[in-house]
Every structure is written in structure tokens, then in C-alpha cells.
Amino acid sequence: MKFYNDLPNWAKGVVAIGGVAIVGVFGYKIYQDVKRKRDVRDASKSADEATKELKRLSFNGVNPTITKTQAINFSEKLVQAMNGCGTDEKMVYSVFNALKNDADIYLLISSFGVRYYTPCGASQPVSYARWLFNDKTFGGDLGTWLSYDLSSSEIDSINNILSKKGIKYSF
Fold this sequence. Notes:
By secondary structure, the protein is mainly α. The protein is built from 9 helices and 2 strands. The protein folds into 2 domains: 8-43; 45-164, no CATH class.
């Protein structure tokens, strides 16, 4: 304490401001971490609900026509089709055209889980700049990704593909 008391007034101010800044930075980092964990937990609810629904359907004799590996591959195709600049709508539609029943869509949603999105630097420069500092900024479940990247008419097209196959789920 003697060291601090011997400092000139301007130096005491620097020490006080520096201390407050350090506490502020650590407090903000803790806040960001808690918020990110809460956001991931909230985003993963749809995957958890899809897993429960898949088990219920299986109990009732409705099993997926695609394998878990195929569902993972479909998830990767969707990420490839929607991530960054541009969207490959044909690839998105091809994934949903491959699904045959309710269990398939729930397996896809469950396999997709929570993924992180790379915004387009050309059309979303502010979002892209935020992403450069934190690549976990833009994330979500399959429905969130579709709403990020597709128009409402394109989402309606996906819902039409599903309903024509007798799949009750809609985005």
C-alpha cells in the first residue's frame, strides 16, 4: 500500500483506470462465455426434440429410410450449399427430395445439430467482420440456417417437397 500512496496523483489515476479496465474485460469475457453457452443450449433444443420424436416414431414402427451416416452427409451438403456467399438451392432441394418419411426429417435435424455459419463478406460486411473476431457468432439449428439463407418462398418450396411425401414437419 505504501508503494501506491507514494505515487503521484496522475499515476494513481492510471492504476485505478487500469484496474477497472482489467475487471471490465474479464467481466465481459465471462458474460460472453455464459451467453454463448446459453445460446448453444437453446439452439440444440430442436436437435434434442428431434431425437425424442425420432424415438417416439420408432416405437410406433416408423423408422428412417436413411442411415445416420447419410443424415450426417446430408447435413454436410446443406452446410456446403448455404455457408458463405451464395446458396446452391438445387443442392438444398436435393437433400429434402431424398427424405421419404417423418423419421428421415427428424434424423436429419438431429444429425445437423448446431452448426456455425460463415457470413458473406460481400453482402454482409459487418456480420463478416464480427465473424472474423469470433467464428462462433452465427450459429444455429437447421431451421435457423434455412432462415438465414433462403427466402420465405424457398422455404415454402421445401415445405411443399416434404408435404408431398406425407411428411408433417415444416420449417
